[in-house]
Amino acid sequence: MAKCDICGKGVVFGIKVSHSHRRSNRTWKPNVRRVKAVVNGANKKINVCTRCLRSGKVTRAV
Prior knowledge:
By secondary structure, the protein is mainly beta. It has one helix at residues 50-55; strands at 12-17, 23-28, 32-39, 42-49. The longest helix is centred in the C-terminal third of the chain and has 6 residues, at 50-55. It is rod-shaped and about 55 Å long.
């Protein structure tokens, strides 16, 4: 699974608990997009989570 190249956010593991309290494993996956961004003055494709895109940590290439 992809990881954010800016903040390092990745997959988180936990336990799903049903109404009858049966427990099973589950994962929370980050909303990661592959975008063209300006990195060190050059256009490059990187994996970025949408939180980093919205907050302006990444300048997108045109």
